[in-house]
Amino acid sequence: MADSPKPRRILLGITGGIAAYKAAVLCRLLVKRGMDVQVVMTAAAQRFVAAATLQALSGKPVESDLWSDRTPNGMGHIDLSRDRDLIVVAPASADFLARLAGGRADDLLSTLCLARACPLAVAPAMNWQMWDNPATGRNVAQLRADGVQILGPDSGVQACGETGEGRMLEPEDILRQVESRLGPGPLAGRRVLLTAGPTFEAIDVVRGITNRSSGRMGYALAQAAREAGAEVTLVSGPVALAPPPGTLLVPVESAAQMLAAVEAHVARCHVFIGVAAVADYRPTQICKQKLKKSTQTLTLELEPTEDILATLSTRPGAPFCVGFAAESQDLERYAEEKRRRKQLPLLAANAAETAIGAQDNALILFDDAGRHPLPRGPKLEQARLLIAHMIPLLERWERSGAHTHQEPNLQ
């Protein structure tokens, strides 16, 4: 496995407001994304959520006291932000926005923001009338003019029971904006094409051959690739999932339609990841009407469907291809045989009986260096680990010029 990149350092500021509970979720998401999080809370914030909670989630002592002697030089009120890549204040109350716009430095968080040497983003959270107040508007306009990024707010039902603009963005939305603010990811400038979900091979106008694939692994990989900065096109069979934000969704039904969609987009892509559970066979004839039930035995003649991954991976000038294998027996042997047969630099294998349709997974990655098992976990975590493992292989493959040859080196 490749060495993990240096973690991005975030200072998470929390001010007083009912939305402070969302800050705990945000902290957890930032840490799960591999970021180093230092939490700083105002006195008012601690009336809504305990510092011990944030300490447990961040793995660091929570700071709140402007006068605490936390550093040898006695400059903790400045030093805490010196090694940070970004300060995020979520929630940012109306009072905090006012103090920030006025350049106040009367507690630890406001002092750190004033003396920062890194970008600052704030996620406002307040009653809708407070947000609509002209004073708040002036403060927000000043902060924008000062280069502070304003995240939100959202609109909807508020804790007070009223409805309007002023809700803090959801933690997942803030996470995406934080990652975007931290700069282009390792796949920036690259286009990734994925297939996901099952295919449906029609028998008649209502029936067909399909499988239990939920599409979660493919959609998770689309999100992980997007998080890494790639432009993502997702060719998906019929699933009940929303595409990750920022991806181009191409819905299809059959294996033939999936291959046609892939062929239409593959010329522009740098990476192809074949995650879809494509049906291996389809009926040779499709009945134009619904087949009526009878007491007679029904015989279907089946023919093989297109092998999308092999079609792409073995052609000259193929993109970097990643395959998937779901097996019910001899997982590792079949997976490595498939990788070599289809000339793949990377293949992910999982046990069919525990992976298909499940929320979590346990992948084993196979490449030229051998096998790399991943700990079982949610499919999005598995997807992020797979993308992290793929990136140095892709970079090495590009440097070698392997994409100009018909066959990648599998020695």
* Average pLDDT level: 89
Helix % is: 25-40%
CATH architecture descriptor text of the largest domain: 3-Layer(aba) Sandwich
Oligomer: single chain
How many beta-strand runs?
A: 21
Gyration radius, rounded:
26 Å
The gist of it:
The protein has about 400 residues and is of the alpha/beta class. Helices cover about 35% and strands about 20% of the residues.
Question: What would you say this structure looks like, in words?
Answer:
- This protein has 411 residues and is an alpha/beta fold.
- The chain has two domains: 9-181, 3-Layer(aba) Sandwich (Rossmann fold), CATH 3.40.50.1950; 191-288 and 298-404, Rossmann fold (3-Layer(aba) Sandwich).
- It has helices at residues 20-32, 51-58, 76-79, 94-101, 108-114, 128-132, 134-145, 171-181, 216-227, 255-265, 308-313, 331-341, 352-355, 379-400; strands spanning 9-14, 36-41, 86-92, 120-124, 149-150, 154-157, 163-167, 191-196, 201-202, 208-209, 231-236, 248-251, 271-274, 281-283, 302-304, 320-327, 346-351, 360-361, 364-367, 370-373, 377-378.
- The strands form six sheets. An eight-stranded mixed beta sheet has the order 12-11-8-13-16-17-19-20, with helices on both faces. A five-stranded parallel beta sheet has the order 2-1-3-4-5, sandwiched between helices.
- α1 runs parallel beside α2, α1 (20-32) crosses α8 and α9 packs across α14 (379-400).
- The longest helix has 22 residues, at 379-400.
